[in-house]
Structures are given as C-alpha cells and as structure tokens.
Specification:
- With 454 residues, the chain is an alpha/beta fold.
- It has one domain: TIM Barrel, CATH 3.20.20.
- 30% of the residues lie in helices and 14% in strands.
- The chain has 14 helices and 13 strands.
- The strands form three sheets. It has an eight-stranded parallel barrel, surrounded by four helices. Strands 1-2-3 form a three-stranded antiparallel beta sheet, with no helix packed on it.
- Strand 12 and strand 13 form a beta hairpin.
- The N terminus and C terminus are likely disordered.
- Bound molecules: 2-acetamido-2-deoxy-beta-D-glucopyranose (NAG) (3 copies).
- One 2-acetamido-2-deoxy-beta-D-glucopyranose (NAG) binds next to loops.
- One of its GO terms (cellular component) is side of membrane.
Length: 454
C-alpha cells in the first residue's frame, strides 16, 4: 500500500478512519531515525553519524536509470549493500513521476539512507547558460522531487547540484547553484516538510574547492547550505594520509562550520585496496569529515564497479571484496569523533578570476512564476519523459534581498503547523514537545531567518 500524503488526504476526505489508520501505520513503521545536523557533523539521534556508502548508478552516467523506482532491482542490490555494511547510497537522478515507496521502505528496513541528487540531465542548471536554465520549469521539477522524498525518514540529504562548476571560469555559475540550494531549503520550510539537509556536490578540482565550500556557507542563514560535499580521487593505492595530500585538505578545512563528506572517492589507477577507508574513519579526519561514498556500485565503461550486473544476476568483483574488507577492518571512532560543536558561517571568498570568478554574495531572486510553489506546492513531476527545462520557462529578474529565502517571506510560516519551522531551527533531538514547538514557531515568525542556525 502506498503511504503517500495523497493517500492520507484521500482517506481523510472519505472519513475512512480504518484506512487512515493503516496508512499512518505504514508510513511510520520504519524505525529508522532521520539524520540531523549539529555543528559540523551529522547525527542519528544523539550519536554521531558517518556516511559509509556507495554511489548507486546502474547504467552509468550515460544511460538514465532510476534504480529506486524498480523494487526488484533495488531489493536485489540491497542484499549486497547489507553484505558490504553500508548505511547510505547516493542516487544521481530519479524519475519523479514514479512511485518510490517500495524501495525507500526496503532501504529503511535495511538501515540504509539515501543521498539524492534532485537534478536530471534534462532538468538541471546548464553551466554555460546558468541564467536561462534557472527558471520556473526547472524549479517545478526539482521541488516535485523534493516533496516526494522529504517524506521518507531515510532521505539523508539532497544534492542541489552536482559538478556544475568544473573549472575556474564556470565558477561564474556559482550564484545560481547557491540560489537553487536556497530555494530548496525554503521550499522545505514553507511546505512544512522535514528539513532534509541540502548541499552541493563539488567536482574534484583543487583550484576553487575551498572557495566553493566557503561560498556555499557564507551570507545570511537562509542562503547557506546544510553541508558541503566534494569528489576526491586523489588517494590512489598504494598511498597514505600524507602522500595523498589528504592531511593538507583536513588542515585547510579545519574550522569549516558545516558537515563535510566525499560524494565520490576511490581512485582506480592501480589495484584498489581502499586503504583510504581507514584514514577517512579515523580521528585524523573525523573532526572535519563525516565519511563518504565510494564510486561506484555497478561496473560500467569507466571501470569503477564493485559488482557486475547482468539481467537479474549480480556478480561481485575483486573491488567488492576489497571494500568489504576495508569496511570490516575500520570501525567508527568511539565518542563524537572530535567534531566541531559550534559550526557556523564562513566569510565569502574574494574574487580571484579565473579560478574564482564571483564577486560578493549577491544571488538571483527566485523566478517570479516559481514563487507560488512555496505556498501551493509544486504538484506532480513529469519524470524522465518530460521535455526538459534548460531553455524553457521564465528566468530570474533582479537580485534577491538577504533573507528572501526564509520561509516567513512567503507568508506561510506563521500560519503553518510547526513541524517545518522546528526542524529548520535544528532543535537537537527529535522528540520536541508540541508546546515548545508552538512557541518556537511564534518566535520564528517574529525573528525570521536569524534564528535558523545556531
Ligand atoms: C590548502 O590551502 C592552501 C592555501 O590556500 C593552498 O595553497 C593549497 O593548495 C590547499 N591544499 C589543498 C590540498 O587543498
Ligand atoms: C568551529 O567552527 C567555527 C565556525 O566555522 C570556527 O570559527 C571555529 O574555529 C571552529 N573550531 C575548531 C576547533 O575548529
Ligand atoms: C543468470 O545466472 C543463471 C544461473 O547461473 C544463468 O543461467 C543465467 O543465464 C544468467 N543470466 C544472465 C542474464 O546472465
């Protein structure tokens, strides 16, 4: 049975309390705890949470597939995820016209979270034309995806963008990436959805990685991300913490106020032993990093696979055994791993063209026709068969005023129920009493975005 909001709504309309009860039970029967952000770390309740995951993209980047729209496919692979000891998978594109309840529930039952890219090849920012591709048709698609997945307790995070900036000059697109992040976060709050962490996944480029991280964490709280992730293929076995330069990255990111993790890693230049796993989950790194995702589950032409998929058959490869051994030999640090409890904003990086071709922190305003989605919802997604968005719709006109991305600016926060606002405040723990939440909501609507982050 589907446990969607619409089925609940239908049940209420019909006054069928028995149906409602079973829907509600179904929606909540997973005991998986949603992941939250505290300081520069992820938490599962009171415990530090480290991402131990793989990138899950059967078909590769060239063949568009939604592996979590097909229950047979995902259940076949969940057996392997469990055997590997994973707690997270990343999916690069989903068809938001499809149902995902079966796979998301099966993943939750296996204790596995999802990091989801909200974009698809056809519905994404175009780095060569960021202004045109940041439009209302695009936002409708990704908001529909966000609405669909925020309801699952095991949606760990949304990637607002993936490798949009892939060199110095394309950093000029960064304000649009940041605007999309702002809009998704605002959408979650305005729609009273769970405040799923939202952030960007950066390409493996040394020349502006730190600037991009700082940029996504500077400015007013409504504009800042909830975490930052980047791809890193610089540790090629045999290597070490110092040989790989990972020690320098830890040094450079020390004091960064958001959770940080690797959205892709696993250099395949030489035989992979995944020796970096023991560094990544050691206290040498856990004060700054929160784990990462190995590229990638299935064998594709780029030769990074852990398994070979052929029809219904999955055959494990040597890299699978190597990764499993590395994980087995590497427990998480005890205690809190030395995370930074304070967290907080970065300063905005100074313009340094061509590597960092962005001046200040002025963001484009949300395209006018997309504003209504904040209050009315985005409605249904057209899925993979849609016509795409990059050359459609209405673009942004003008720049945003600071704080424009706060939920109250659309006028919905004060009148709404309290779930979203409370989540936005990042109240530690999950069991917030309704009366406290009500008070928090009132404060939120008076004081606005300044309260969002500690
Ligand atoms: C660390 O930061 C320094 C100074 O900004 C920079 O020169 C260096 O390339 C960075 N190292 C890494 C590995 O990012
Ligand atoms: C913790 O993060 C804050 C905000 O980025 C920073 O100012 C502070 O120096 C950090 N503390 C440590 C010990 O890294
Ligand atoms: C799957 O494995 C079975 C048993 O080994 C074999 O008979 C079948 O041909 C395989 N199918 C594919 C598509 O490889």
């Amino acid at each position: 049975m589907k446990a969607t909001f619409s089925s609940l709504a239908t049940a209420i309309t019909l006054g069928a309390s028995a149906v409602l009860a079973s829907s509600a039970v179904k929606a909540r029967d997973s005991s998986i705890t949603p992941i939250t952000v505290k300081g520069n770390a992820f938490f599962q309740g009171d415990n530090r949470f480290y991402i131990r995951g793989v990138d899950y993209q059967p078909g590769g980047s060239s063949q568009l597939e939604d592996p979590i729209a097909d229950a047979d496919v995902c259940k076949r692979d969940i057996a392997k995820f469990k055997d590997l000891g994973l707690n997270t998978v990343r999916v690069y594109s989903v068809d938001n016209s499809q149902d995902h309840d079966d796979c998301m529930n099966a993943l939750a039952d296996a204790g596995i979270y999802l990091v989801l890219d909200v974009n698809t090849p056809k519905y994404s920012l175009n780095r060569a034309q960021p202004k045109e591709s940041y439009n209302d048709v695009y936002l409708q698609y990704i908001f529909a995806t966000v609405e669909m997945f925020a309801k699952y307790p095991n949606t760990l995070a949304f990637f607002s963008g993936n490798e949009v900036i892939n060199d110095g000059p394309s950093s000029a697109a960064a304000p649009y990436v940041k605007a999309v992040t702002r809009d998704i976060r605002q959408y979650l709050r305005s729609r009273n959805l769970r405040q799923v962490p939202v952030g960007y996944s950066a390409a493996d480029i040394d020349t502006n990685r730190l600037q991009m991280a700082e940029y996504m964490n500077c400015g007013t709280d409504d504009e800042r991300s909830d975490f930052f992730a980047f791809n890193d293929y610089s540790w090629c076995d045999p290597s070490s913490f110092t040989t790989s330069g990972w020690d320098q990255k830890v040094k450079n990111f020390t004091g960064y106020g958001l959770p940080l993790f690797l959205s892709e890693y696993g250099c395949n230049t030489n035989t992979r032993k995944f020796e970096e796993v023991s560094a990544l989950y050691s206290t040498k790194m856990t004060g700054v990093y929160s784990g990462g995702l190995v590229y990638e589950y299935s064998q594709e032409s780029s030769n990074y696979g852990l398994v070979e998929v052929s029809g219904d058959n999955v055959t494990t490869l040597a890299d699978y055994d190597a990764l499993k051994t590395a994980y087995n030999n590497t427990p998480n640090p005890s205690g809190d791993g030395g995370y930074n409890k304070t967290g907080g904003a970065s300063g905005c990086p100074t313009k340094d063209a061509p590597n960092w071709n962005v001046d200040g922190d002025t963001l484009p305003a949300i395209p006018a026709p997309a504003k209504k989605y904040m209050t009315q919802g985005a409605g249904k997604g057209v899925g993979f068969s849609g016509d795409g968005s990059q050359d459609k719709g209405t673009a942004s006109t003008g720049t945003a005023t600071a704080g424009s991305g706060s939920a109250s600016s659309t006028g919905s926060a004060s009148s709404s129920s309290s779930k979203g606002a409370a989540a936005a405040l990042r109240v530690p723990g999950t069991g917030v009493a309704p009366i406290v939440v009500g008070m928090v909501t009132a404060m939120f609507s008076v004081l606005g975005a300044s309260l969002i982050l500690s």
